[in-house]
Structures are given as structure tokens and as C-alpha cells.
Write a structure and sequence with these properties.
19% strand
């Protein structure tokens, strides 16, 4: 792999909502195709890419639970939604000529490999993009926590979180035009300020394992590549000092 790149193995966390775009539900094929093109450019640089994807564009377990559904059942349904998104991303990437593998934390042999850490690492070494589906395979854990867990397991250099905003702010920039953007933070700042970046379990897991996080916008093509190349974009969360 190219030694000059600041990040040689990355884990990208995508929300399901990001795939829906302005439609609000399902998968926007234009967004999916643009994402695949961006990932192909990064892949061609020699970067090893793993992806954890959410399922909120199809089914949100937490919302269903709050409406009265059994939490475990709702979460399992949400995990199945992530598998559907993983297959959509796989199809888009392979249409760009990028070899991929989907690994599911819930066994479903006909459409995905079971999650096996060493096999995932081997796929990455062979320059295949690995898409991790079904979260951690356990209810009560978010896909943010799954992303932190998989990033640590595969020894990624960084966890990239693609969102609809261009970084972390002290308040919602859509509601507050004077919201202040942070270029750099420490984990302890994220927790102490109550910044809603990822859930506390995911932040704590990254903090315990010194896993840096970069939060950036996926709305503008090329931003992800800039992040990979070490250019200033989004918000960088670093280990405490």
C-alpha cells in the first residue's frame, strides 16, 4: 500500500438516513452512485476500506421501541434493515469495478458471509471493500457502537463518520446560525460537553483504544478523499492527553 497516506486502513460509518437523501425513506440511487464513485477513488489510492452501515432509512428499532414494540425485536428488525443497505452499497461498488464482501453479524449464508475478524482482515489485505452488516448482532447496541467495535477489531487507523453536516458544532447549525464548529476535540470534551456525535458507548470504546474519529459531511463529493489525504475537513476527535 501507499506509505505516504496518513490513513491506510479506514472504517467508514454510514447512516441509513444518509442513503435516503431528501426522499427520507429507502435508498436514493443518485446518492448511492456518488458514494460508490467516491469510495472507488479512495480505493484506487491503495486505502483499505471497511464500512458499517445503519438502517434508519428503512426501520429504526429505537423509534419502534418507543412506540411500544419489544425493544429486542425492534432492534433485530433494524439489524435486518442494515443488511438490505449493505447489499445496496455492495451492488453500487461492484458496478464501479470494486470487489466487495458483505459480512453479517447475524448468520444468513445465502446473501452474506458470517462476521469473522481474521477473514475480514484478509479481505482487506486483498484490496476488497468489506461491508459489515447487522450491527454487533445484539439488541440494545447501536450501529455507532458496532462501527467503534469493528474499527478496533480490524485495527483501523481512523473511524470516519459521514453525516449530513460538515463537522461537530456546539449546537444544531440548522437551528442556530451562530453555532460554533469545532475543528478538533478530545474524547473527554465530547463526553463532558454532551455533544451528540456518537452514543457514549461508541465514544468510550474509541477512547479506551485510542481510535481517532473524523466527522465530516458526505453531501459534497470529494470531501471523503480530502479527509483520507489528511486535508483539513470536518472535525477530528483525538485521544485525551
Amino acid at each position: 500500500m501507499t506509505k505516504k497516506l496518513p490513513y491506510q486502513r479506514v472504517l467508514l460509518k454510514l447512516s441509513g438516513e444518509a442513503l435516503a437523501g431528501n426522499k427520507g425513506y429507502g435508498v436514493d440511487l443518485t446518492i448511492l452512485q456518488d458514494l460508490a464513485k467516491d469510495l472507488k477513488e479512495i480505493h484506487e489510492l491503495g486505502v483499505q476500506i471497511a464500512i458499517v452501515i445503519g438502517g434508519g432509512n428503512i426501520f429504526r428499532g429505537m423509534a419502534a421501541s418507543e412506540s411500544g414494540m419489544d425493544r429486542a425485536s425492534a432492534d433485530y428488525m433494524g439489524m435486518l434493515a442494515t443488511v438490505m443497505n449493505a447489499l445496496a452499497v455492495q451492488d453500487a461498488l461492484e458496478k464501479q469495478g470494486v470487489f466487495t464482501r458483505v459480512q453479517s453479524a447475524i448468520e444468513m449464508q445465502e446473501i452474506a458471509e458470517p462476521y469473522i475478524r481474521r477473514r475480514a482482515e484478509r479481505h482487506l489485505e486483498k484490496n476488497r471493500v468489506v461491508i459489515f452488516a447487522a450491527g454487533t448482532g445484539n439488541p440494545f447496541f447501536t450501529t455507532d457502537t458496532a462501527a467503534a467495535l469493528r474499527a478496533c477489531e480490524i485495527q483501523a487507523d481512523v473511524l470516519l463518520k459521514a453525516t449530513k453536516v460538515d463537522g461537530i458544532y456546539d449546537s444544531d447549525p440548522k437551528k442556530n446560525p451562530n453555532a460554533k464548529k469545532f475543528d478538533e476535540l478530545r474524547y473527554i470534551d465530547v463526553l463532558s460537553k454532551g455533544l451528540e456525535v456518537m452514543d457514549s458507548a461508541a465514544i468510550s470504546l474509541c477512547m479506551d483504544n485510542d481510535m481517532p474519529i473524523i466527522v465530516f459531511s458526505m453531501n459534497e463529493r470529494g470531501t471523503m478523499k480530502d479527509v483520507i489525504l489528511g486535508k483539513k475537513a470536518g472535525t477530528l476527535i483525538l485521544p485525551n492527553q
